[in-house]
Specification:
By secondary structure, the chain is an all-alpha fold. Helix content is 64%, strand content 1%.
């Protein structure tokens, strides 16, 4: 008697995992590319919760009546725990999501099992305990929002800096040859002038990056408050991170534009504030003049310094921290 082995192909449906992650056939149950998943989470936040919970969903079994009494005696604390539990499910970092939700469950369990909950009036010590735990949770979620803002801005600045390196390398290494294939012929003066503009703009971009990083130190929480207009829960941290990535790219672009504008103003003699130590005409030979290649060092040094200073003053554009917000924080 022959036995027949029947192979049944099972369909793989996405399976929810703790913390909002999902497994799928494409990534081998989440284990084929763990580094890619971790990188994406660190950049764009953890996945959305497939089954969000409310505070009522985490009430221990058999404590429904205690939960009702808790809401009657401590309505403000109950409301705050509900809001914080909802905010914890949209936190930026997975560890913050887990720890904040565990904390809310622990606080709620402690309050419902506390014998002072049976008093006719709210107990001052239990109220103080709840308020302290709520304040700690607020601080933890606020730090999570600040992390999302600073990480998004740093990633945006990094992408802008990488693009600036490409924009610098292409004309320096092959710009003249590329223009030659298009039938454009550049003499010595034209080459020095165009390359000077490119280098000045590129250094201005890095000046803008440094300017933002200097002002970002210790101000990520202020940026997070500005994103939400001071109202918690208006913008989730993942949206803050994406918004600040765009802001970082915008700042690098502003550095390029400012540095190029200053270069053309100074090199064209429109704003004769500084005396340029060396021009392209001084470096290149001309009829009756041998030229001075040694002045190329002065040329590059001057325009790199001018580009960096111009890019560093990207704060002339719309303030990333906002003067009004900074003034309110100093008064408080």
């Amino acid at each position: 008697m022959t036995s027949v082995t029947v192979l049944v192909r099972r369909r793989a449906f996405p399976t929810p995992r703790p913390g909002g992650y999902t497994q799928s056939m494409g990534d081998n149950g989440g284990y084929r590319h763990p580094w890619w998943r971790g990188t994406r989470i660190s950049v764009d936040r953890a996945d959305s919760e497939l089954r969000p919970e409310g505070l009522m969903d985490v009430v221990p079994v058999g404590m429904d009546r205690a939960y009702v009494q808790f809401g009657d005696l401590y309505p403000e604390q109950q409301l705050q725990l509900q809001l914080l539990y909802g905010a914890s499910q949209s936190a930026f970092e997975p560890h913050t999501r887990v720890s904040a939700r565990v904390t809310v469950r622990r606080v709620l369990g402690n309050a419902l099992s506390d014998p002072r909950l049976g008093d006719a009036k709210p107990n001052e010590h239990l109220t103080e305990y709840l308020d302290q735990e709520i304040a700690d949770l607020r601080g933890r979620l606020a730090q999570d929002s600040a992390t999302a803002v600073s990480r998004g801005l740093n990633i945006g600045l990094g992408l802008g800096a990488a693009a600036s390196l490409v924009l610098l390398a292409v004309p320096l290494l092959g710009g003249v040859g590329l223009l030659g294939t298009l039938g454009v012929t550049l003499n010595c003066t034209n080459r020095w002038s165009l390359l000077g503009a490119v280098v000045c703009g590129g250094v201005g971009a890095f000046g803008a990056v440094l300017s933002v990083l200097v002002r970002l130190r210790g101000s990520a929480d202020q940026l997070a408050r500005r994103q939400t207009d001071g109202r918690e829960g208006v913008v989730v941290p993942g949206q803050m991170a994406r918004s600040m990535r765009h802001e970082g790219l915008y700042r690098v672009f502003v550095g390029w534009v400012l540095a190029l504008a200053v270069y053309f103003l100074f090199s064209g003699g429109i704003v004769p504030i500084f005396e340029v130590p060396a021009t392209a005409a001084d470096i290149c030979p001309a009829p009756g003049r041998p030229g001075s290649p040694v002045k190329g060092t002065d040329f590059w040094g001057f325009w790199c310094a001018v580009g960096f200073v111009a890019g560093f003053n990207e704060r002339w554009a719309f303030g990333i921290l906002g003067r009004d917000a900074a003034r309110r924080q100093s008064k408080s």
